Amino acid sequence: MLKAGIVGGTGYTGVELLRLLAQHPHVELKAITSRKEAGTPVTAVFPSLRGRVELAFSEPRPEALRGCDVVFFATPNGVAMGEARALLDAGARVIDLSADFRIKDVGEWERWYRTKHAAPELIGDAVYGLPELNRERIRGARLVANPGCYPTATQLGFLPLVEAGAIDLDHLIADAKSGVSGAGRKTEQHLMFSEASDNFMAYNVPGHRHWPEIRQGLAQAARREVGLVFTAHLTPAIRGIHATLYGRITKELDFQALFEKRYAAEPFVDVMPAASHPDTRSVRAANVCRIAVHRPPEATNRSDTLVVLSVIDNLVKGASGQAVQNMNLMLGLPETAGLSQLPIVP
Amino acid sequence: MLKAGIVGGTGYTGVELLRLLAQHPHVELKAITSRKEAGTPVTAVFPSLRGRVELAFSEPRPEALRGCDVVFFATPNGVAMGEARALLDAGARVIDLSADFRIKDVGEWERWYRTKHAAPELIGDAVYGLPELNRERIRGARLVANPGCYPTATQLGFLPLVEAGAIDLDHLIADAKSGVSGAGRKTEQHLMFSEASDNFMAYNVPGHRHWPEIRQGLAQAARREVGLVFTAHLTPAIRGIHATLYGRITKELDFQALFEKRYAAEPFVDVMPAASHPDTRSVRAANVCRIAVHRPPEATNRSDTLVVLSVIDNLVKGASGQAVQNMNLMLGLPETAGLSQLPIVP
Amino acid sequence: MLKAGIVGGTGYTGVELLRLLAQHPHVELKAITSRKEAGTPVTAVFPSLRGRVELAFSEPRPEALRGCDVVFFATPNGVAMGEARALLDAGARVIDLSADFRIKDVGEWERWYRTKHAAPELIGDAVYGLPELNRERIRGARLVANPGCYPTATQLGFLPLVEAGAIDLDHLIADAKSGVSGAGRKTEQHLMFSEASDNFMAYNVPGHRHWPEIRQGLAQAARREVGLVFTAHLTPAIRGIHATLYGRITKELDFQALFEKRYAAEPFVDVMPAASHPDTRSVRAANVCRIAVHRPPEATNRSDTLVVLSVIDNLVKGASGQAVQNMNLMLGLPETAGLSQLPIVP
Amino acid sequence: MLKAGIVGGTGYTGVELLRLLAQHPHVELKAITSRKEAGTPVTAVFPSLRGRVELAFSEPRPEALRGCDVVFFATPNGVAMGEARALLDAGARVIDLSADFRIKDVGEWERWYRTKHAAPELIGDAVYGLPELNRERIRGARLVANPGCYPTATQLGFLPLVEAGAIDLDHLIADAKSGVSGAGRKTEQHLMFSEASDNFMAYNVPGHRHWPEIRQGLAQAARREVGLVFTAHLTPAIRGIHATLYGRITKELDFQALFEKRYAAEPFVDVMPAASHPDTRSVRAANVCRIAVHRPPEATNRSDTLVVLSVIDNLVKGASGQAVQNMNLMLGLPETAGLSQLPIVP
Predict the structure, then answer these.
(1) What is D2-125's CATH topology?
(2) Which parts of chain A are beta strand (E)?
(3) Extended strands (E) in A215-339
(4) So where are chain C's domains?
(5) Would you give the DSSP letter of residue A249?
C-alpha cells in the first residue's frame, strides 16, 4: 500500500478525501493534520467515518507527513505555497486542492488572491491537474495544482469547441450554479441554512477568482487568449455544479459527434445523448462530469448560439475525486482506482 | 366593495390570488370554481386560510360568476379561451393568468401550445398585462393576458436596454432559474421532493413556451424583431425566479442611471445600488421585481457584455400579484392596493 | 401613532419585528439599535425592507429610545436584564424577547443560563407573555417576558389537558421539532446550509433551557409541579415548530370538545377538526397556533395515551408576532392589530 | 458470480438495489422487470447508472427471472404474494421488500392492508429479515420478509431494553421522522417539492401500517405483547429516519453498557458514546444504524424515562441495504459484502 497524507482535513474537501481514500484499494491514509483539531479523533469531527478511520488529527508538523508518497493540501489558499517545498524535497508528490499553484502568471495570481506568492519558483513546475487536458504531464508531475470546481465544469464543457475553433473565442459566457458546499465549511452568514435555503442568488459578479483560471485553461487549449463572462450563483443544494455555457458558432460542425469523439476514451466524462438535460444529482458523490450539447430553439433555423450543459459534484470531480484521479496518474495506479462509487439517487 | 371571481382556484396561482384578495381593501371574493373540488370548503384544501375565507369551491358554471366585476382565470392553458367571451359579454373584466391570450400571432401560439385557438377574435382585444410596458392600455382593457413568470423577470430586466437601443438585439441571452412552484401544483415525477431537492437542472432547452412571449414583448419595446436564447432551470426552492441576462453593448451609456431613471416612478420595480446581488428571498411573497446591473469583470476594461440580475416571486409579481395589480388598474383602484405585504425574510 | 423602539435588531426576531411593525396601523417604529451596525441603513442589512423602512441602526444609547411608548429587546440573553430598568423608569413599556425575565426562580434561571442575574428585583414584576394564559396580567404589565418558541407551542398544546386535570402530570412528553431559524442568526457550524440541509437530528437532549420554562408555565396552570421530558430536534426548514405531545389519560373526556371550548375565543389559536394533521407551512409567517388532538391507534380500544399536534411559526407566534400581540394588549390596542397577514402557502 | 433478479425496479428501493448490486463483488444482476418500462434501458430512467448497468427493464414474466439464485421484490404491496410461490418452486431465494410477508397474523395483515392475502400458506415459512433479531433463521430461509424502514429504526432502538425487561412494555412511545423518499416514488400531492419542502407534519397518526409490524417484532423479543404509540412525521429531507423512542424505566441498569454489549458484534449497528446526538446524514447512503441512549434531563435525578435516538438511511438499512445483507446471509456470503460504502457527508 502506498502512503497518503492530508494537510488540513477538517473542511469538506478534507472529509471527502477521507471518504475516498478510506475506500481506495492501493493507498493507505497515514496522517491527517489540523492545527485546530490536533489530538481529536477524526471520527469525533466526522461520525460518518466511525469504524472506518482510526486516525486522530495531528499537529501540522513536517514529521507528521514523513514517509508519505503523496500529500494532499485541503487547506485554505495560502498554506500550500509555504509548505510544499519541504514535502517535495522529502520526496513526496504534492497535490494542492487550494488555488496556490493554479495560475501561471504570478502577477495575476497576486492581484486576484491579494497576497504575495510565497513560492513563485514552484509555479512553473506545477501541473494544472485537469487530466482531460494535461494527462501526460500529470503522470510526470511532482506538484499538481488541482483545479477549482467551477473551472472543471466550465473547461470540460467548452474544451471540444475551443479545440475545434468552432465558437467565437472572444465572447464566451459561462453561467454557473453551485451548491453551498462549494464555498467550504467556513461559517459565513450567507451560507447559513436560514439564509441560503429557499433562496437563489448570483455572487461575485464584478469579479470571481475562477475567472482567470478558466481563461488560462481555455487559452492553453485554444493557443490564444479568450474572452469570458463568468457568473457564479448559489443554489440551495449541498453538492453539485451546473454550468450553462454559451458560445457563438463560427464554424458549423456536428457538435454532438464532436463531443462524443473528444471524450470517447475519458473514464470520467459522459457525453449524454442529444436533447438531454443532465441534473446534478446524476453525479452526486461520484467522480463524473456529464455534458449535453444543445442548439436552441430547435423549432427555428436562425440560432447561431450553442448551449452546453455541464454538471459535476463540486466535492468529487470538482475537488477531492479529481485529486485522487491525479494521484492515481502520478503514482502509476489505474486511473479509476478507488473512484468507482456510483452516484447517490435519490 | 367590488366583486371578484376565480375560475379554477386549486392551483398555486389560485391560492395566491385567494391570499391577496382576502386582504384586499376594495375587493371582495364572491366565488371560486373548481370542477374537481366543487362543494368542498376552500379551507379544507388550504387550511392556511382557515378563519379568513368562508367560501366553498363551486361548480364552474356561468351563474357562479354572475355579478362579478372581475374574473380571474387560474386555470391550465386552454380553458380561458373557451369561457372568456361569455364573461365579457356579461360585463365582467377578465384577467387570464394562463397563456391563452398572451401571443398575438395565432399561428405561433398554436405551434407552441399544440391546440387550435378557440377564440382568435379576442386576441386582438387582449392587452398584455405588464404594467411597466402597457399601463395605459391595461387601464382601458376588458381582457388582460397576465404575463408568464419568466417573461416578467426577463422583460423587466431587458426593457431599459432594449428601449435605449443599447445592446445587440439579435443576440440576447436569458439564463433563468425558477423555484419549483413555477411548474404549478400538478403531480409530475420531476417535481417530487425526492427528485427536485438537492438537485439542479436545465429543462426544455430545445424550446420553451415563454420564448415567443419574451420575444414578442421585447420586440414591442424595440419596434423590431429580437433574437433570444432562453434557458430555463429548476432550482430547489419553492418560490422565486432569478433571471441572469446577457447583452452585448452597442452604445455606451451610464447603465445604472438608465435603469434608475426608467423605473423611478414604478411602484413595484426596485433598481438596486450598483454592485448589488438581489436574492430571490428579498422578494419572497411580495409583488416586487429587484434588478441589478453589472459589467464584469470590473478589474479589466475590455468587457463589452452587460449582465443584468432580475428577481421576482414567480407566484406574486410573476402571476397573482401582477394579476391584482392589473385588476387595480382596470377597476380604477390605487395600483398598489392590497399589494403592500413585505417580503418574508428569512 | 404610538412609538416603538427595538434594541438589537439585526437578528431574525429583529427583522421579523421590523416586518410586522412596518405594517402596523397604530404604531410607528422610531428607533432600532445595533452596536455592530450603528449607522448602517436597515435596508443595507435587510434589502427586503427597501422602500418601506427608512431608519438606520443607531448606537445602543439610552437617548436613542427616548420617547418610545414601547421598547422590544431582540437581543441575546443577558442584555435586557441590564438595560430594562432605565427604560421602565423613563416610562416605556418593555417587551423582552430574550429569556432574561422568563423564569421566576432566580436560582433556576442562573443554573440554566450560567450567569448571575443583573436585575432580580424586576423578575417579580415581569409578566410571562403568553396571552392565552396571562391575558389580563399582560394588559397591566410594564415588563413582559415574551415566551420562547418551543414553550409557546408546547404549552398551548398541553394547557387544556393540564387545566382539566385529564392527564398524568408527572410524565408529560414533548417531542418538538424546529426549523433552523429558531437557533437565531448566529454563524454556528451545525446551522450551516451544508450541515443542516437534508439532515435531521435531536440536540440538547441532556438538558434544554426551554425545559424549566415549559414546566413553570404548566405548573402555573396545574397549580402543582409537573414532570416533563422535552426533546428538541432540528429539521431542515427555515421556519416552523411542530410539537408532538404525549400524555397518559387519567380522566376520560371528549378531548376534541375540550380543546375547542378552551380556545373558542382565542384569536390566534386554531383547533383543527378531529383527525387533522396541521403542517408547519399552514402557519408560515402568520401569528397562529394550530392544534389537533388524536388518540391513536383508532383501530383499537386499549390506548390510554393522547397525542396532541401543535404548530407555530417560531418567529411569529413563537417570538415577534407574540411580542406584537403583547404590545397590543399592553397599549390598549385591538389584540389583532397588525397581525392579520395570512400564511404563505406554498 | 451468483445471479440476482429484481421485480419492479423503477422505484427508489429498486434503484438503490441496482446501485448496491452493481458494486457487489459476488453477485451479478441478471434481470430487472417493470411492466411500465419494459424494453427501456435502465439508464434511460436512471442516468446515474450510465456506463455501469447495461440491462434494460424486461416484461415481468417468469422466464425473465429463470436461473436467478435470488429474486428481490421491489414492488408495491400485493405483488410478491402472488408471484413468490413460482420463484420458490423454481429454486430461487426470495426477498420481499414490500409488506406482504411481514405480519404473521393473516387477519391483522388483511385489516391493515385491506386486501385478501394471496398466499397465506407462505407466511409461516417467511422469516422476518431483521438480522439483529433473526440472523440464524435468515441464513436458512428461502423467503425473507424485509422489514419496513420505521420498524428497523424503532426495533433496533428498543431491542436491548425490551430484551432486558428494563422498561414498561405497555407504554412504549416511538416518535419517528422520515425523509420523503420513505413514501416511495409515487406522485402524490403531499410529496411534491412545493408541498413538502420547508414544511413539517405528522401523518397517519390515527393508524400507521408499521405499528403492527413494530409491535410484532418487539413482542417476539419480549415474549409477550407490547403496547405502543407510534407517530410518523414527514421531514423535508430526501433520505433518513430519526426515531426518538421513549420508555419508562422499570429496572435500573447501566443503559449505555447494555446497548454497547448487545450490539458489540453487530457489523451494522453503531452505539454512539454517551451524550451523543446521531444525525441522519451520518448514515446517508450507508447500511448503518446509529443509536444513542439518554436519560434527560441530566441536571435532575427524578426522571424515570429513557430517550433513545436511532437513525438509519430509510433506503439502505431501512430497505435495500438490509435486503442485500439478508441476501448475503441466505447465500452464505460474508454478511458485509457489497455494503462497505461510507456515508456521504456533507
Answers:
(1) Rossmann fold (3.40.50)
(2) 2-7, 27-33, 70-73, 93-96, 127-128, 143-145, 172-178, 201-203, 228-234, 241-248, 269-271, 289-294, 305-312
(3) 228-234, 241-248, 269-271, 289-294, 305-312
(4) 2-125, 150-314
(5) B
Tell me the nearest-neighbour CA distance from C41 into chain B, angstroms.
13
| pLDDT tens track for B34-58 | 999 999 999 999 999 999 999 999 9
The overall longest dimension of chain D from CA atoms, in Å, is 65
Q: Which amino acid belongs to residue D236?
A: P
Q: Best of D50, D238, D263, D281 to disrupt the A interface by mutation (most A CBs within 10 Å)?
A: D50
Report the Cα B282 to chain-centroid distance in Å.
17
CA A112, CA A130: separation in Å to the nearest integer? 21
| Residue A289 bears catalytic tag | no
Cβ-proximal residues to D195 (8 Å cutoff; 6+ apart), any chain: B193, C346, D189
- Are the C-beta atoms of B280 and B315 separated by less than 8 Å? no
Q: What is the pLDDT of residues B60-115, one digit of tens each?
A: 888 899 999 999 999 999 999 999 999 999 999 999 999 999 999 999 999 999 99
A246 DSSP β-pair partners: A173, A307
Which residues of chain A register pLDDT less than 70?
Answer: 299-302
Task: Tell me if domain D2-125 and domain D150-314 are identical in fold.
Answer: no
Q: For residue D194, list chain B residues with Cβ-Cβ distance below 8 A.
A: 12, 179-181, 185, 191, 238
Q: What are the two backbone dihedrals, phi and then psi, of residue C20, each rounded to the nearest 5 degrees?
A: -75, -45
Residue with cell 428601449: B163
Q: Do D305 and C171 touch (CB under 8 A)?
A: yes
* ipTM, interface predicted TM-score of the complex: 0.97
For a pLDDT cut of 90, what percent of chain C falls above it? 96
The answer to whether D275 faces chain A, any CB pair under 8 Å, is no
Decide: helix, strand or coil at residue C88. Answer: helix
Instruction: Tell me how far apart the alpha carbons of residues B78 and B99 are, in angstroms, rounded to a whole number.
Output: 8
Model pLDDT, residue D62 = 81
**Residue among A230, A235, A296 whose CB faces B207 most closely:** A296
| Answer CATH for D150-314 from 3.40.630.30, 3.30.559.10, 3.30.360.10, 3.40.50.2000 | 3.30.360.10
Is the Cβ of C345 closer than 8 Å to some Cβ of chain B?
A: yes
pLDDT of residue B249: 97
User: Among residues of chain A, what percentage have pLDDT more than 70?
Assistant: 99
Q: Which string of DSSP letters, residue by residue, matches D12-47? A: HHHHHHHHHHHT-SSEEEEEEE-TTTTTSBHHHH-G
Residue-wise pLDDT tens digits, B162-188: 999 999 999 999 999 999 999 999 999
Closest Cβ–Cβ partner in A206, A284, A298 for B294:
A206
Q: Cα separation of B183 and B74, whole Å?
A: 13
